[in-house]
Design a protein that fits this description.
By secondary structure, this protein is of the alpha/beta class. It is built from two helices and five strands. Helix content is about 20%, strand content about 30%.
Amino acid sequence: MRPGSVQIYAGTDHSGACLDWHETMPQFAEVEIADDEPLSGLDLRFVVGMLVFVVGSDPFRVAAIHAKCMASDARRVVSAGVTFDPQRPNADGVVGRVLDSASEAL
């Protein structure tokens, strides 16, 4: 089964959802791109035709991954810099600037 959408964490996934998404919510894939992983050789072919959400605490890294997803022919990419509290991994984060490939920055 191919997931209907994918969430990409630009940095550490404090919720741990990237480890078991295929068991808990197979229709919604989750991927972690570590902070120390270089973006230059990043292969995002898996996003072709998909709805993609990119979140992370570094807005420049989020924007770079957003652009790479668009270049990889994602159907739509919605991205935001989000500050998470690692002590409260299931709590909502504080959202910064939002990018949406279907419109200008919101």
